[in-house]
Amino acid sequence: MSTSAIDHKEAAAIQAAKEGVVVCDRSFWGRIRVSGDDRLRFLHNQSTNDFQSLKPGQGCDTVLVTSTARTIDLVSSYILDDAVLLLVSPHRRELIMQWLDRYIFFADQVELTDITDETATLSLIGPESDGIIEKLGAGSVIGERHGNHTLVDGAIVAVGSGLASPGYTIIPPAGDKEKWWSQLLELGVVELSDRSWEMLRILQGRPAADLELTDDYNPLEVGLWQTVSFNKGCYIGQETIARLNTYKGVKQYLWGIRLNAPAEIGNMITLAEEKIGKLTSYTETPDGYFGLGYIRSKAGGIGLKVQVGTTEGEIVAIPFVSHEYP
């Protein structure tokens, strides 16, 4: 296919993300500090994952959901000695601050602080990121579980790139961002643009706020089973999620769609002229056109040939999500 819409630098960065190591500046994502003695119990009750079992130095991805289990955001959480740091989607921090604040009651010892402007976020992505982390003095987290982290020069260095690719998330004070950035480039790390991150996000199936993460969908439809604890006690939206799991009631799933021509977000996905879903994200890549969309469970999965608007497409697996409990 023509790569006219993709310049050489972007194509090289995408290749480096697959075979080497890249760094992407995600500082425009939101960061919220949750402190107070009741912080773990509070987050345990407000989201899908099990916070009560986590210790400082650990972390997890979790989903904030409404009372009817509709998704608000996919959040990365890092347990510190005296607080929990939440990394939230762009354009979601004010909504999440307000949402969480609604559930802090008079006796709760919980305090929320928006620290986005005081901090930064850099994502290291790619199979060679371990070697870089070693050189940065954070080798102790190599091979650890997703979300586990250590502190290096006042920065959190955590396992997990934010995508399905191997990598790490670095959260330094805002004043140290340029120092970290320069150090990474000096070590040979390739810069990944926001546009290239978006391309990788779609290819790997990481859901985005306002596109795949909306109040039209629940976490099981999105494919975020790894963020849901089915053993923990009651939390907001828990009854709906438990019922969907018990009765196999998930009516649609998020899939990747390999397209043979351009398409537009919002295009209807049809099979034999019957509507079976909707395209939620779209990108042009060095290898062709690709999208994400929700497909009705009964219609089928991998290998299914569909129409996306006027374009032909084929359903493919995406590594960030799963369609069953891991």
Work out the strand percent: 25-35%
Q: What is the H-and-E element order?
A: HEEHEEEHEEHEEEHEHHHEEEEEE
Number of strands: 17
Radius of gyration: 20 Å
Order of strands across the widest beta sheet? Answer: 8-9-10-7-1-11
Mean pLDDT: 95
Outline the biggest β-sheet.
Answer: 6 strands, mixed
What is the first-to-last residue Cα distance? 36 Å
User: Which structural class best describes the helix and strand composition?
Assistant: alpha+beta
Helix content: 10-25%
- Number of helices in the DSSP assignment: 8
Shape: globular
Low-confidence stretches: none
Summary keywords:
326 residues, single chain, alpha+beta, 8 helices
Topology:
Elements: H1 8-19, E1 22-25, E2 30-35, H2 39-46, E3 59-65, E4 71-79, E5 83-88, H3 93-102, E6 111-114, E7 122-125, H4 129-135, E8 149-152, E9 155-159, E10 167-171, H5 177-186, E11 190-191, H6 194-204, H7 219-222, H8 238-246, E12 252-259, E13 268-271, E14 274-285, E15 288-296, E16 305-308, E17 311-316
Parallel strand pairs: 1-11
Antiparallel strand pairs: 1-7, 2-5, 2-6, 3-4, 4-5, 7-10, 8-9, 9-10, 12-15, 12-17, 13-14, 13-16, 14-15, 16-17
